[in-house]
Design a protein that fits this description.
The structure is a single chain. Helices cover 50% and strands 3% of the residues. Helix 5 runs antiparallel to helix 6 and helix 6 crosses helix 9. It folds into three domains: 60 residues, no CATH class; 41 residues, no CATH class; 86 residues, Orthogonal Bundle (Non-ribosomal Peptide Synthetase Peptidyl Carrier Protein, Chain A). With 202 residues, the protein is mostly helical.
């Protein structure tokens, strides 16, 4: 049996760095207590009369309801491994996480298509604005407080957030970028320019 645990508030990294709690909450993750983990382990190893044991238990994730708005922070909703949660989260209207996630991707892709392949300056402005909005959501701060002339790491972006930004870039622009590039001390508008250049070579 595989047990995928959420973050623990009693022991481990988050317990020692409590400033990350809001970040994980924004991703749609729920905290676990040590007793929860102990109970799961007990269930996994006990030999009772029942023959059924699930092959995998995922803890801490909740599906989006039809009334929720997915702003992209729940990155795992767009991964095929969690397709069951996506389907569970769809309401009677048939709307759910897929619609929320795809509308964002389509919006940025459409904006880039409209500016044309030869207008790199306009494309850079579009991507820069999108980066600012994405950073504001991840760091839970007003977009107006973010200066695109400063690097992402100036706003406390660490490796965890950088992975989220990298995944977002891949999903929104179909551009591969490394975590080191995301965390480099270069202004956001310069990072955006490099992404536009890479996109043009694809």
């Amino acid at each position: 049996m595989t047990i995928n645990v959420s973050y623990l508030t009693s022991v481990g990294f988050v317990a020692e760095h409590y400033q990350y709690v809001n970040y994980f909450r924004a991703m749609g993750l729920h905290a676990m207590q040590t007793r929860d983990l102990h109970s799961l382990l007990s269930i996994a190893i006990q030999d009772d009369a029942t023959d059924y044991h699930p092959g995998q238990i995922i803890c801490g994730l909740t599906p989006l309801s039809s009334s929720d708005q997915d702003d992209g922070r729940r990155y795992w909703m767009h991964e095929d491994r969690f397709i069951a949660l996506r389907n569970t989260g769809k309401g009677a209207s048939g709307e759910g996480a897929d619609k929320g996630g795809s509308s964002s991707a389509v919006s940025l892709a459409e904006e880039l298509r409209r500016c044309g392949a030869d207008n790199a300056a306009a494309a850079t402005d579009i991507v820069t604005a999108a980066l600012v909005q994405r950073l504001a959501r991840l760091m839970m701060m007003p977009a107006e407080d973010i200066d695109p002339g400063r690097p992402l790491n100036a706003y406390g972006v660490d490796s965890l957030v950088a992975v989220e930004v990298r995944n977002w870039i891949k999903r929104e622009m179909a551009v591969d970028v490394s975590v080191f590039e995301v965390m480099a001390s270069v202004p956001m508008h310069r990072l955006a320019s490099g992404l536009v250049g890479k996109r043009g070579k694809n």
